[in-house]
Design brief:
Blueprint lengths: L2 H7 L1 H12 L11 E13 L2 E12 L5 E6 L4 H15 L5 E4 L6 E4 L6 E3 L1 H10 L2 E4 L9 H15 L3 E2 L2 H16 L11 H9 L16 E6 L5 E4 L2 E4 L8 E7 L2 E6 L2 E7 L7 E2 L35 H8 L4
Parallel strand pairs: 1-4, 1-8, 4-7, 11-15
Antiparallel strand pairs: 1-2, 2-3, 5-6, 9-12, 10-11, 12-13, 13-14
């Protein structure tokens, strides 16, 4: 018997297996039950640069209302910021959040037993906001189909073919698009306008977020001070006192602030940048360097109040007096 004959004989079996793998039972959730979240990637012209944008998309399971926000990356902190933004946008928390098997969220997911081990910080985040995390089945994104379709809708309808003057312009566009387009369209599955369906049944079913503060997740890093008196974080440069050139410093990022310490003392504080290739300089960090000082920096507008440790900014003359001569 030839191979071609065997293939013809089992053709109907292959079709049945393919159909079984693709078969999906639509699962509708009651109001306030579930929020589905996911990231999608799309390149967009921002200014004169072709930038990869990571689009966080959250979809309410019942009303199909969307929340969309752009990020520079898909790290754990971006997932958490996206979920918090969705809760505040919708004005409440769902009972559960259905998420992808991203390594920043799920430590392990057994494909056969469906046993899930969530990341420890995700557990803390879920406890803070009082929702139950659920992971979709590995390699079966259709279990999160509402949001998968939402991501595609955002890419094609909100982003494709558009240019933006700046990152804030992109954020403003997405806010306007969600409000005026996504919330007001007639949804293909429900046959209703998402905002109307939300106001009628889902808004009152969400758990209130009144008096719930943001989840403060600190990110800790170690960086070496470069020769130009800066440390680099996420492609942006932040100044530190010049005397620490070549030293390793500890960086803690929390609440939009970046704090730098060395030998247990805080030596610099900066507001965190969310752009790319930006330089944040505190002129005080260059005091004592040839060509810098009160007169040299008189025309420089500092970005923030000096926050460096006084011990690290002492004039060299004081040390010369202590050792009894020049060094």
């Amino acid at each position: 018997m030839s191979l071609r004959t065997v293939e013809r004989e089992v053709r109907h079996l292959r079709r049945e297996l393919e159909a079984e793998a693709r078969a999906t039972i639509r699962f509708e959730t009651p109001p306030g039950k579930q929020l589905q979240i996911d990231f999608g990637e799309r390149r967009a012209m921002i200014g004169d640069e072709n930038v990869k944008v990571y689009l966080f998309v959250a979809t309410l399971g019942y009303s199909r209302r969307l929340y969309v926000w752009p990020f520079r990356n898909e790290r754990q902190e971006s997932w958490f910021a996206g979920v918090e933004g969705a809760f505040r946008h919708f004005g409440g928390v769902t009972e559960e959040v259905l998420l992808d098997n991203d390594r920043g969220l799920v430590a392990h997911h057994n494909r056969l037993t469906r046993e899930v081990e969530f990341n420890a910080r995700l557990h803390a985040f879920a406890k803070h906001w009082r929702f139950r995390p659920r992971a979709c089945a590995p390699y079966r994104a259709r279990t999160k189909g509402k949001d998968e379709r939402g991501v595609g809708y955002v890419k094609k309808n909100a982003i494709a073919g558009r240019q933006f003057e700046s990152w804030p312009a992109l954020e403003a566009h997405l806010e306007e698009w969600v409000r005026d387009v996504a919330d007001q369209r007639v949804h293909g599955t429900t046959g209703e306008v998402p905002m109307e369906r939300f106001r009628r049944a889902e808004a009152s079913a969400l758990r209130s977020i009144a008096d719930v503060p943001p989840f403060e997740m600190a990110r800790e890093l170690v960086r070496k001070v470069q020769a130009d008196c800066v440390i680099e974080i996420d492609s942006n440069a932040y100044s530190v006192p010049w005397r620490l050139i070549g030293e390793s410093v500890r960086v803690v990022i929390v609440g939009g602030m970046l704090r730098v310490s060395h030998a247990g003392c805080e030596v610099a504080v900066h507001r965190r940048c969310f752009g790319r290739c930006e330089r944040v300089m505190d002129p005080v960090h260059l005091d004592g360097v040839v060509g810098f000082g009160p007169k040299a920096r008189a025309g420089i507008a500092p970005g923030s109040e000096p926050t460096s440790s006084p011990e690290l900014l002492r004039p060299l003359l004081e040390y010369e007096r202590l050792v009894g001569g020049r060094w």
